[in-house]
Amino acid sequence: MSDHHHQHPPSDPTLRVKALESLLVEKGLVDPAALDVLIDTYENKVGPRNGARVVARAWADPDYRQRLLIDATAAIAELDYSGRQGEDMVVLENTPTVHNMVVCTLCSCYPWPVLGLPPVWYKSAPYRSRAVLEPRAVLTEFGVHLPVTVEVRVWDSTAELRYLVLPMRPAGTEGWSEEQLAALVTRDAMIGTGLPLNPAEVPS
Amino acid sequence: MNGPHDLGGLHGLGPVQPESNEPVFHAAWERRAFAITLAMGAHGQWNLDQSRHARENTDPLTYLSQSYYEIWLRGLETLMRERGMVNEAEIQTRMAELSGGES
Fold first, then answer.
1. What CATH number does residue A185 fall under?
2. Do residue A165 and residue A87 come from a single domain?
3. Active site residue A108
C-alpha cells in the first residue's frame, strides 16, 4: 500500500495489459508463445467435460467409484487429469439424503483440472457471501428444489483443497455407456448448484 | 487476514447472476492478464499465498468494485513492483507509445 495510486482500477485494462506484456517480453520475463499455449489450454482443452468423464466413470464402475471417494486425487489422475489447482482433490458424494454444494468464500478456489476456470458467478460476491448463509435460497435461484428431508452440506474450498461433487446417477440410464452418461453431467451438477440432466433432456 | 475478501455470510451483496453459455474469458485482455499472471508465477518469486495477499490487501471499495481479472492484474503489478521487475513509469511510457504517442 506504499503507493495509493496503484490501488485504483486500471482505466483501460486493454492498453495496460498490452503495455505490461510488451515490457515483460522485452525484459525476457514472459514468452508470448507460452502465453498462447496457456490460453489455449484453459480456453479449449481443460473444462467441465473432464469432470463429466470422472463422474460417468464413477457411475459405471463401482470399483472406480470407491477409489474416487477414498483418494480422489489419485483416481482422477487415472484419467490423466492432474496438476495446477487440483493437487489435492476431495470428491463429495450426493445421496438421497445429502446434497453437497461447493463455494470459495475467500476467493475463487476451484478444481481447474476437472472443471476448468470458474464461471464469473462462482467468483462473485453474491455467491460467496450467500452460499454459506442461505444455501437453499441460492439453490432455488439455480432451479434446484430439494425436499426438506435432504440435508444440504456446503463446503468452503481452500487454496490447498478442492472439491468435486459426485451427483446421483439419473434414473433410466441402466446400461448406458460412459460416454452417454457423461453427456448428462453438467458443470453446475459438479459444483452442487445443479443436478445432472435426465435422459429426456439430452440433446440428440 | 480479516479483509474485504472474507465475504462468507455477509448480507446485502445482491442476487447470484449466472450467465448461460458463459465464455471462459469475457475480453481479449482477460486472456492475456490470466496467462501473464500464470507465466510470471512460474518464476517462483512469490507463492500462491503471496499472490492472494497482493490481491486482497486493499480497501473494500476497490476490492468490491474491480472485476476478477482487474483484481488479478492489480495483484500482479504489486508483486512485480515490490521486486523491482516493472514500475509504474515504465507502464505509463509504454502505454503512451502503444497508443501512438498520446498519453
1. 3.90.330.10
2. yes
3. yes
Residues A36 and A59 in one domain: no
Please tell me the total count of domains within chain A: 2
Give the ipTM. Answer: 0.92
In-domain check, residue A2? no
Model pTM?
Answer: 0.91
Q: Which residues form the domain of A162?
A: 47-197
Report pLDDT digits (tens) over B25-76.
999 999 999 999 999 999 999 998 999 999 999 898 999 999 999 999 999 9
Rounded to whole angstroms, the Cα distance separating A69 from A58 reads 9
Please tell me whether residues A34 and A77 are part of one structural domain: no
Q: What is the pLDDT of residue A9?
A: 45
- Per CB-CB distance under 8 Å, the chain A contacts of B43 are 29
Widest pairwise Cα distance in chain A: 63
Select the residue from B5, B21, B29 to test the A interface by mutation, using most A Cβ atoms within 10 A. B29
Question: A154 and A103 in contact (C-beta within 8 Å)?
Answer: yes
Is A109 catalytic? The answer is yes
Q: Which helix (H) or strand (E) covers residue A93, if one does?
A: strand A89-93
pLDDT, position A202: 82
CA A25 from chain centre, in angstroms, equals 32
Contacts of B86 in chain A (CB under 8 A): 20, 23-24, 27
